[in-house]
Amino acid sequence: MRALVYHGPGHRSWEDVPDPVVESPDDAVVRVDCVTICGTDLHILKGDVATVEPGRVLGHEAVGAVEEIGAGVRTVAVGDRVLVSCISACGRCRYCREGRYGQCLGGGGWILGHRIDGTQAERVRVPFADTSVYRLADGVSSEDAVMLADILPTSYEVGVLAGAVRPGDTVVIVGAGPIGLAAVVTARLFSPSHIVVVDPAPGRRAAAAAFGADVQLDPTADDVLGRVRDLTDGLGADVAVEAVGLPSTFESCVEQVRPGGHVANVGVHGGPATLHLETAWIRDLTITTGLVDTATTPSLLRMLAAGRLALPGLVTHRFGIDEMQDAYDVFSRPSETGVLKVALFAADADVQGPAGAGLTRVPG
């Protein structure tokens, strides 16, 4: 089969690799019908994730059909259309029993495209299939479902839930990339009074408005702190979600929250950021970090199937799976291409819905 292989910082190739096979009784082999690229994949290619070894097939998000299962798999069968989660869960260790699947001690956690070969391929082996893939309802499009493999639960769990967003809150989201936009969508589930999105790119600010952010600010031109305080009687935001992964954006989130407020860091950081405890220690702040657990994936899938979770416009560019290199080129240049998320489809993909109808490649 063909797959996207990492060959060290700055190097990748779409090449022939061996087909995956069932190696354990709890494995499933899934034919990939729809896959996407994550910002974390770009961090890997920059060399920010040293635990990814050269020769690894990248990718940790996919929708597809189960082709083979191990003898111990009980909850899915050959032929089932499934979502492959970015997190694998053994289901037995202490952290899995607490619902902290991202910290799995039994061989799971974030392993696809990290410690084992991932989803940016024609097929993928998924360990712990009973707890790591989810059957999809008829009518849910592959394009929408694949957004629930990572970015929706990440923004929801690490941003909105960890940030303790409540009705009536003012929520500032710094960064209007895919994670930031997913945070807008999921924060709206809690009816905040204001959702403020901060991003220097006009196209991304426009996307944030379309997704439901009522205030969009340019950090290079607007007085962000002043505007946030104007909205909050001078106090600052109740919750600030960091969705970029830069020292400056993290530090701005700490600055923008009110005393007693919450900073939820979602962005992947490739270097240190300064925490100004000389001024922050007295403000009763809560700062959280985290890797997604995907414990909310079933509830998000139910909302998606019921029409309660809409993701229009999040996928801006579509490709055939054999155009993986082109998709990476487009996704890595968002300021030039205007890309938010890409979706790549197998030639004979079962896309189950209008989002996959009449697929055409959107050029970068």
From TrEMBL:
EC number: 1.1.1.-
GO MF, any single term: metal ion binding
Signal peptide: none
UniProt entry keywords in alphabetical sequence: Metal-binding, Oxidoreductase, Zinc
InterPro entries from the UniProt entry: ADH-like_C (IPR013149), ADH-like_N (IPR013154), ER (IPR020843), GroES-like_sf (IPR011032), NAD(P)-bd_dom_sf (IPR036291)
Domain Enoyl reductase (ER): 8-344
Cofactor(s) for this UniProt protein: Zn(2+)
Family under the similarity heading: Belongs to the zinc-containing alcohol dehydrogenase family.
Protein name, entry field: Alcohol dehydrogenase
